[in-house]
Amino acid sequence: MKKRSYKLSLPRWALAQRESWYAELAARGLRVQKAGAMLTRFAPAPPARLRYRFEVGSDEGGLPAGQKEFYEECGWQYVLNDRPLHLFCAPEQTDAPDLHTDPAALADSLKTLRGSILSQALGTALWALLMFAQLTYLGRYTLELVLADAAAPLVWAILAVTLFRLGWGVYSMLALMRTRRMLRAGAMPRHGPGWRRAALAHRAACALLGAVYAVCLAVGLLELARYEKTPLPETGAGLPLLTLAEVEGAGYRRAAEAAPNVRDDVNQLVQTWTPGAPLGLSAWEAGYADGTQDTVYLVQRYCRLSGAGGAKAFGRGLARRLWLLEPEEYTVLKETPDTLVLANYEDGPGFHQTLLLVVDGPDVLFLHYWGGGARSADVGAAAQARFAEYTAAARGR
């Protein structure tokens, strides 16, 4: 017994092309069973010469009462429901009258299909707008930041399908408008081998989207393979990062993983790889200051980008996303064509905070140090010294 087969669907608006396609496959021994947006299912059957015709239903997707039974009495067998479309077939040798003989009436009935395609396109456009707003809100995601983010493949995959659906919706609307103009001019759709051109365009678009997905999947798997998490060492020697033991000095105690308000990846060093940042290091450390129960935190992220051209844009985007601060709230400690140092210091009763961003060529360091009690050290100066030492050694290798 032969199994069912699946083939890439033709566009919904290409009614005559779909009807011709189904008829040609029926002559080869494949009968259409179910039509989907991407795939159409066929079942094996004895070869037969059949005519297929679509009937456009109401906005709710149904046919008027008694219309299906009337068509069946005229020799047309009901095949499937592809809302708002309904497919019928009849043997070519019978004298069953064609379902559509009036071009103007057929053009008028296609308004329902136009509304269905338009609603899908508007829904996709709204989704694209919301996604764009989320990525660019307050500038927290620049292109450089997306390229260096570990979630970049997922972002690009979502963006690819969104743009594909939006573009395909616009193309479908234009094609349907062209068909309705032809019908209003008195010309009926032509059946025959012309369906192959529509099939080629649709399948090429699907293949292109599939290639984008494959690339995103490959990059995602590569990122996963290069993701590494190890216990954070007591000192940051050999790394571009500090540790709280170096900042707080003697008497500092690291927080246990089960401590309240502490992340599950506390005191871990995470190494990542992305296309935009071949080397990424991040650490979240929490502990207690000497002789107190004041909790202190140190969050750091280091990235070596693929190129220095977008390093400043990446750094500013990283600061906006993680600090939620605008440029006018920074204190610019240093800025040259190749370097940038931004800082923000806060001190108050029982609280202190240091925010630091350092950009030197393709190397970027973000640091956030905060906690209760008084500030223990000038962590900004120490972090810059460690960063400069590491980058100089890395470039000298």
Automatic annotation (TrEMBL):
<keyword id="KW-1133">Transmembrane helix</keyword>
<keyword id="KW-0472">Membrane</keyword>
<feature type="transmembrane region" description="Helical">
    <location>
        <begin position="198"/>
        <end position="222"/>
    </location>
</feature>
<feature type="transmembrane region" description="Helical">
    <location>
        <begin position="155"/>
        <end position="177"/>
    </location>
</feature>
<dbReference type="Pfam" id="PF11193">
    <property type="entry name" value="DUF2812"/>
</dbReference>
<keyword id="KW-0812">Transmembrane</keyword>
<dbReference type="InterPro" id="IPR021359">
    <property type="entry name" value="DUF2812"/>
</dbReference>
<feature type="transmembrane region" description="Helical">
    <location>
        <begin position="117"/>
        <end position="135"/>
    </location>
</feature>
<protein>
    <recommendedName>
        <fullName>DUF2812 domain-containing protein</fullName>
    </recommendedName>
</protein>
